[in-house]
Amino acid sequence: MTAATNLTLQSLVPIADEHLDQLRRLSGATSLVEIDATACRLIAAPLEQREAVAHYCAAHALDHAYLPPLRLADFGLLAMDMDSTLITIECIDEIADFCGLKAEVSAITEAAMRGEIGDFRESLRRRVALLAGLDASVLEQVYDARVRLSPGAETMLAGVRDAGLATLLVSGGFTFFTRRLKARLGIEEAHANTLEIVGGKLTGRVLGEIVDGEVKARHVLTACKALGIDGRQAIAMGDGSNDLPMMRVAGLSVAFRAKPVVRAGASVAFDHVGLDGLLRLF
């Protein structure tokens, strides 16, 4: 980033003039450009003031991002996590609810996403093993009754398509859900884990290679190669520690309602606004 770095502010509600005045002074920006009532851009904001800006924004429920002037069309790929990013739930936790083990599975999921469990593959095997014997029809019930898109998801996807970006869904969750979301939302490519089903029941095992953080990063780079672009032309969005490897290979990383370790490693964090906040960065 250079001296030309701009500071984008976003909120769920119209940003009060007092916040704009205070942040313009605090940031040292040269001017202010309104994007809409809930977003604005402070031009040429020095990075030296970012800690004070971060404290102010956190205290007033504002999302902020320091970025150089960019166009969305400068990128060629949007790579998204699924659970707790594109959708609001962790699918494995909701599946476990049908066998009375949601609390136990959720605790493992939460620890894995915070980065407290070093081996994502082992944590996934432990959680899936607890689902053994569950009727596979539960997957359909979870999709129909509990899967909800995160706020702004469809607007974001429409915007990135209009800008010419390809879309990739890459998840440590399950293909049962990614395939349906891929078809529903018109996502070009999706990768996830396959639950083994025998006789209409979950066996408690995963088939094939487990999609962990390193595999996510590999899928992002493979997609970039197929598109003829560099990893720096990819945007990666996620919430858990297993998303960090793909965030590191991308040119822009977005932490969405993310764990602290992910927010700390991302270019941008959205703690308040929806996924469509991505469009206002450009």
From TrEMBL:
Q: Does the keyword Metal-binding apply?
A: yes
Task: Cite the Pfam families for this sequence.
Answer: DUF4072, HAD
Task: Write down the EC number.
Answer: 3.1.3.3
- Cofactor(s) needed by this chain: Mg(2+)
Protein name as catalogued: Phosphoserine phosphatase
Listed GO MF terms: hydrolase activity
> Which controlled-vocabulary keywords does the entry list?
Amino-acid biosynthesis, Hydrolase, Magnesium, Metal-binding, Serine biosynthesis
Catalysed conversion reaction: O-phospho-L-serine + H2O = L-serine + phosphate; O-phospho-D-serine + H2O = D-serine + phosphate
